[in-house]
Write a sequence for this structure.
């Protein structure tokens, strides 16, 4: 969890299917995007939802994905993008 | 839901409607929880009514004023880009229990549209309650993978050289779209500009109203 990312870094969203209050949409798991901006540190919603402290706080990143990388049959324009907030423990560095 | 339709991209789906069904089991669950919490003294029925009244009192007009100020006041714009929540607070909007607010400014090159695929996160402190369609499964699922198709259904047909950027509010951020300032509106007073800024244009499914 000491992964430090900066704007423009390529990231891979982890796969996995945990039960519970997870804020990483399933459609992005296993997809590659780019750090758009760092949003700050927030309590972990996966714990907060169950009455826990949510600490330590986690870094929340806004990650930008190319639509064509997320949906193989994307029918829009090639430069269309998605912006999604993803907590650090769901991300790993990609090349 | 009424009928299922097939169109351009070859798969059928329900149209986006303003009146998504509420499942009876969810209504029952809400009622049971509400009655138990009142019985245990966690809150009273009057507390619920007051909360609903407070929520109903917030209208998209606050957001319209915010956007008009953003268009006209460079200092405010700078502040809002840095910290949307603080900027909203500075104009008297109660953000005390609100999450962070991120401003997505549309440009001639990039158009933003906001969705919450996981639930129905919405900048309530600024815009009030979300429209029913915002919470519908159709909008939430289709907005992320066919935004151009969805926008067309709202009457917004953007050319291919405008990049569409969908913001999926999944966590601690709420998003407010600042639509493009309509042509011919430069120099208009803030109050008149605010009248051009519709709720839907701040979600990103339409543009601000044209002048005149």
């Amino acid at each position: 969890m000491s992964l430090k990312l900066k704007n423009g870094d390529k990231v891979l969203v982890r796969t996995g299917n945990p039960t519970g209050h997870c804020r990483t949409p399933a459609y992005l798991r296993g997809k590659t995007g780019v750090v758009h901006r760092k949003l700050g540190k927030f309590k972990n919603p996966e714990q907060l939802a169950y009455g826990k402290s949510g600490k330590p706080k986690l870094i929340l990143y806004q990650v930008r994905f190319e639509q064509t990388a997320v949906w193989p049959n994307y029918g829009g324009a090639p430069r269309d993008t998605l912006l999604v907030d993803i907590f650090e423990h769901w991300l790993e560095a990609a090349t | 839901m009424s009928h299922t339709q097939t169109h351009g991209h070859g798969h059928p789906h329900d149209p986006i409607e303003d009146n998504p069904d509420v499942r009876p089991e969810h209504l029952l669950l809400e009622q049971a929880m509400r009655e138990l919490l009142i019985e245990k003294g966690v809150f009273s029925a009057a507390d619920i009514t007051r909360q609903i009244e407070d929520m109903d009192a917030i209208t998209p007009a606050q957001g319209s004023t915010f956007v008009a100020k953003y268009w006209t006041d460079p200092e405010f714009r700078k502040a809002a880009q840095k910290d949307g929540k603080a900027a909203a607070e500075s104009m008297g909007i109660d953000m005390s229990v609100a999450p962070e607010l991120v401003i997505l400014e549309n440009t001639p090159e990039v158009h933003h549209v906001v969705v919450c695929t996981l639930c129905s996160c919405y900048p309530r402190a600024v815009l009030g309650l979300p429209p029913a369609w915002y919470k519908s499964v159709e909008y939430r699922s289709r907005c992320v993978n066919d935004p151009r198709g969805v926008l067309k259904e709202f009457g917004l047909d953007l050319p291919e050289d405008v990049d569409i950027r969908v913001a999926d509010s999944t966590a601690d951020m709420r998003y407010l779209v600042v639509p493009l300032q309509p042509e011919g509106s430069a120099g208009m007073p803030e109050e008149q500009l605010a009248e051009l800024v519709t709720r839907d244009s701040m979600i990103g499914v339409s543009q601000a109203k044209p002048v005149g």
Summary: The beta strands of chain A are 10-13, 32-42, 58-66, 81-87, 91-93. Helices of chain A lie at 45-48, 67-70.
